[in-house]
Amino acid sequence: MRSLIHYPLSLMFLVFSPACGEKHSLGELTVSAGDPSSSSGDPSSSSADPSGDPSTSTTGELPTTEGNDPCAQHTDEATCVDAGCEFVGGGALEADVDGCHWGDQALGFCASISGGSQSPAIHCDPDGVPVVFSFDPLNIPADWGNCSCEVQGLALDCYRYAINLGPQSCGALTDHCESLTDQASCDQFQGDPGLNGCLWVESTHEVAAEPACSAEPPVGRCIPVHLRQSGGCFDTSPPASCDPAHAGKTPYFGPVGEGVPTGVELELLDDVSCQFEPLDYSPCWADEDSPAGCDCACD
């Protein structure tokens, strides 16, 4: 596959294993140097390297600051820094009728020393707000509770899908998008770039045994997507006989159901704008294994 103009975090194929009802630590626990106090806001802009071997990833209870860190008494960034401590900040996740958003306030905790794994992590603050850290902090305070799929599922999926956790996420975003049955309400739930949302698409069921592309009218539906930080389509190579001629758009394909090979039947999403990346779909002609049904996107 050729590179994206701006390769999104979701295509780095980070594979982690958070479980609902546990602290959402998304990487192996190691000690890391560096000052994370500037990590408040959008954690996706972090320079931390999240590309470690996912086969060795672990989740578990982290050491806390309970009873052994005098800096833990400071509850805001200003007093924390004034006391000579380090503020470990992250970006709050919010979900409302207009989509997924980063919170404006800097949320985090105060510690004498910071450190942790190099992978992004989600933890919930004492008020139950999911907070994304650009690295997984070593010393989460005792009053930071577990993130629950039952309570924060939609907000958690705003970010989880962005780092390609797929089926291991709560599943709330998929359910939410599928419940939106008209284009206006679907496209309204998009929110901030770098997070996930919904998009109204037209899909066609293509069958390889047919002599020509399906003549059935496309079906409109609402699907979960990743909103890229900036535009940029896959640099794909359609067949020489194909003239898609849709600059700024890419066709995607996906399975019609479990156990049905996409070489036999597939669902084709034609003309997806480049700022959106459909989740659980693959771009047509990105590699040699692209199914023949993708040619139905040709003019």
From TrEMBL:
Region listing for Disordered, in residue ranges: 28-71
UniProt protein name: Lipoprotein
Biased composition (Low complexity): 32-60
Organism of derivation: Nannocystis bainbridge
